[in-house]
Structure of Glutathione S-transferase:
Amino acid sequence: MQLFYAPTSPYVRKVMACAHLCGIVDRIALLDSAAHPIRRDARIAAHNPLAKVPTLILADGTALYDSRVICEYIADLAGNDHLFPPAGAQRWRALAWQALGDGLLDAALLARYETTARPPEWQWSDWRAAQLKKVEASLDELEPQAPSLAVQRPTIGEITLGCALGYLDFRFAELDWRAAHPQTARWFDAIVQLPAMQATTPRDA
């Protein structure tokens, strides 16, 4: 398998963390890419019309995207029985947490793009503030649930939330999200010690 990859993408981190947890990271070759909200990377676009990472290319040439689909494919391929619970309340809880983490990331990325991808004369401070309000609301929603989040046998929900919080540390340190969310901070400080999370910690080139 081949993965269009960016070392700072939280969605790529989510996929790679799942690959580590499933023990198949050595079966994935990483492909150089330069995904950008404005400038399309033709290498990715040849397989994914959205030209986004992560995009996974299977041996038969089939392309899978986005991170939600790729992570479930990896879990199924590896026979993992806990990343995506098969049925019942545990499954819906895991998927809801995944949606919360992905939504937090979507808002954080839009806030970042407002100042990194948009020319200064076109930037809209109210737009960025509205996206960061979504981030804050997501953290507030997560705080009372944090004590019930798993560490040692995480589902896709915990992995996504861990990657989302890691992205806030990486790109939005000024938010100091831990100050108002101590239970979430305690959980994050535990799950980030997993080898799968340590191996995928984002770093600027």
In short: The chain is about 50% helix and 5% strand.
